[in-house]
C-alpha cells in the first residue's frame, strides 16, 4: 500500500476552540487555525494528508461542526514544528504587551524576537513571565478560560495582610457584578502574598485587592502552567525546550 505509512503513527488532532461559522470548507478551517494558508491546505488535502472524522479529506470537503475531528499527518506536523519557537520572557514594569500600542512595548524592546507574539497579556504596571511564540496553535489551548490553566503571581500590597483577606481571595471576591473563581492563596510576608488563578479577567488581582481595601504596589507573574520565571532577570529571556516544552505541549493536547 503506497503512502500510508503515516497511518501507523498518531495523527495530530485539531480542535477548533475559537468562534467559526459551520459548515466550513476544510481549507478555510485549517487556515483559520493558523495551521496553513488555504492554498497550502489544498496541497495537503490533495496529497491525502488530512482526515475528517477518520476519513481522508478531499478538496471541497467541509467541517460540519466543532465536534468534527480534523487530523493532519504527523509527518507534516514535524516539519512545521521545526519552525516554531517558544520563549519565556521577563517583562519589566512599564513595557506593554499590546503589540499595537505606541511607546515602549514587547515588539519594540525585543527586536531579536521579531516574528513572535505574546501569549496573553500582562498589564503595563505589572512584571513577570510572558510566553512568546510564533505557534498560533497555543493561543486558545492556553488562554481559553474554559480550560482553567494555572497562573501564579507574587503580589505586594500597601498594608498588612489579614487571614480574612486570604480566605476571601481563596473563596472568590465580588468585583462589580462578577464573583471570581476559587483560588489558592497564601501569605508570603507581612504585605506579600502568592495567588494561583485559573482565570484571567482584566486587572483581576488589582480589582480583587481593591474590593478588600488593599492597593497593589507590585505584581509579578511567576508561572504559567509548568513554565516558571525561575532566575530570569528583568528584560531577559530564554528558549523553552526539552522536557519543559514537552510537558507544556502534552498538557494542552499537542
Largest sheet, if any? 9 strands, mixed
| Average predicted local confidence, pLDDT | 86
- Listing every helix as H and every strand as E from the N terminus to the C terminus, the arrangement reads EEHHEEEEHEHEEHEHEEEEHEEEH
Oligomer: single chain
Strand portion, in percent? 25-35%
Distance between the terminal alpha carbons, to the nearest Å? 28 Å
CATH top level label of the largest domain: Alpha Beta
| CATH topology category name of the largest domain | Pseudouridine synthase
- The name of the CATH architecture of the largest domain is 2-Layer Sandwich
Question: Can you give me a brief rundown of this structure?
Answer:
The protein has helices at 26-32, 38-46, 74-81, 106-109, 138-143, 163-171, 204-211, 242-251, and strands spanning 12-14, 24-25, 50-52, 55-56, 62-63, 70-72, 86-91, 117-118, 127-133, 151-157, 174-175, 178-179, 184-187, 192-197, 216-224, 227-228, 237-239.
3D architecture notes:
This protein starts with 11 loop residues before the first strand and ends with a helix. Mean pLDDT is 86; it is low at 1-9. Helices cover 24% and strands 26% of the residues. It has two domains: 5-81, RNA-binding S4 domain (Structural Genomics Hypothetical 15.5 Kd Protein In mrcA-pckA Intergenic Region, Chain A, Roll); 86-251, Pseudouridine synthase, CATH 3.30.2350. Strand 11 (174-175) and strand 12 (178-179) form a beta hairpin. It is of the alpha+beta class and 254 residues long. It has helices spanning 26-32, 38-46, 74-81, 106-109, 138-143, 163-171, 204-211, 242-251; strands at residues 12-14, 24-25, 50-52, 55-56, 62-63, 70-72, 86-91, 117-118, 127-133, 151-157, 174-175, 178-179, 184-187, 192-197, 216-224, 227-228, 237-239.
